[in-house]
Amino acid sequence: MQDRTVAIGVDHGGLSLKAEIIDHLEEAGLVVLDLGTHDSQSVDYPDYAYAVADAIGRKRADLGVVICGTGIGMSIALNRFRWIRAALCHDVTTSRLAREHNDANVLVLGARLIASELAKECLTVFLQTEFGAGRHAARVRKLNEPPVLDDASHAA
Length: 156
Ligand code: RB5
Fold this sequence. Notes:
Structural class: alpha/beta
Bound molecules: D-ribose
Shape: globular
Largest sheet: 5 strands, parallel
Mean pLDDT: 96
Strand content: 15-25%
Distance between the termini: 43 Å
């Protein structure tokens, strides 16, 4: 786990978990890149999701942790980028499988839906689990090769 940098981004809905998650990351020996938000003022979750996507895309961070109220908005925003595989996790099993099967590089948490102790357990498992590769590798590669579906018969 040493020397890896984790970018963290939260909106006001995720702020309550941020400090504990940062402490947990630092105790695990990781470098934290804190991309906000920094106070309880209402903000737009896509802005923080995009900041984390940018940091990972530019290799300023190896992994991301993002938190909003439910985790749903952050997930939708992050997964628009081909180098991101963001997984909304509610328990240690989803956290483990997100790494083993999906090679997830961003852990998404919903601060209004998960207790802080469980959130930290999810984070520990996420950081400690390796990608399983094997049969999963081709499936993950396919995520970067979506079919062209963008024609007049599809929604705008
Ligand atoms: C903010 O109120 C809330 O909508 C946001 O944190 C998140 O849950 C969106 O998906």
